[in-house]
Amino acid sequence: MPVVRVISYNIHKGRSASGGHESLSDLRLGLYGLRPDLLFLQEVQGRNQRQGSLDAQHESLAAAMHMDAAYGRNAIRTATDHGNALLSRFPILYHENQDISDHRLEQRGLLHGVVQVEQSRVHCIVVHLGLLAGGRTRQVQALADRIARLVPDNEPLLIAGDFNDWNNRLAPLFVQQLGLVEVFAAAPQGADEIYRLRHRVAQLRSRMPWLSGPQIGPSPVLSMSGNAARLTPPPRTFPSVFPWLRLDRIYQRGFAVRRARVLHGAPWKKLSDHAPLVADLELP
């Protein structure tokens, strides 16, 4: 059965975490090394008439990794525009960008693509939700309405991006209403924080065998149905230099989650203000 590597990443328009210098060439190299099958990208510049090296970022990244690309333009400025992008090692059969802007100060969209993975049509939706809680709720409802209209229940579905939902209040809408599973809740290693904590405690015990204390229990392991997915918080991804807020997500339906991780440290903390998420998903 095919295992698909999915990456979700807010690339900060191809600039470093501090915004001080261009990071697109290093970001391209870093992503190439991860060997992705599907890339869900946010804050991608489709047009930059001031700096040609930052123009058509989705095309530049796709060409370097030999992937198909779809771009959804959301925010339009005099000399630039940016939005979401879907890059795929598999053929992109269809794509459409839906405007879900909640007010004039924030232009947001849903980029919905359908890719052919062997015998399966996989629906991929790239999201970048708003900064206001009420707007995010309305945007998720627009997403739910789109799925009800256009995504058959028997076809796999991936939704990934920058949700700006640092308190995880939208999780019940995705888990209960849409039947989706957040990948860190379903991965065998469980939550990223629990995995790293267990590793640190094991290191301490190996160095200090007299150290006693309560053992850390097994991490949550969920089935593909993901009935308890909201019980495990997603990882911290922002800011990348010192991750504190849980802004980014990968939700799935129809896959088995083999592994999920967030990439902290070098070089990722310098390439964008968000840390990327990586998930290995298997189609049954």
Brief overview:
The chain has seven helices and twelve strands. With 284 residues, it is an alpha+beta fold.
Q: Could you explain how this protein is built, in words?
A:
By secondary structure, the chain is α+β, with helices and mostly antiparallel strands. The protein has one domain: Endonuclease/exonuclease/phosphatase (Deoxyribonuclease I, Chain A). Helices cover 24% and strands 32% of the residues. It has helices at 24-34, 57-65, 133-150, 171-177, 183-186, 192-207, 268-271, and strands spanning 3-10, 38-48, 68-76, 80-88, 92-99, 109-117, 120-128, 157-162, 181-182, 248-253, 256-262, 277-282. Strands 3-4-2-1-12-11 form a six-stranded mixed sheet. It has a six-stranded mixed sheet with strand order 5-6-7-8-10-9. A hairpin with a 3-residue loop joins strand 3 and strand 4 (80-88). It is globular, with a radius of gyration of 19 Å. Residues 190-195 and 211-230 have low confidence and may be disordered.
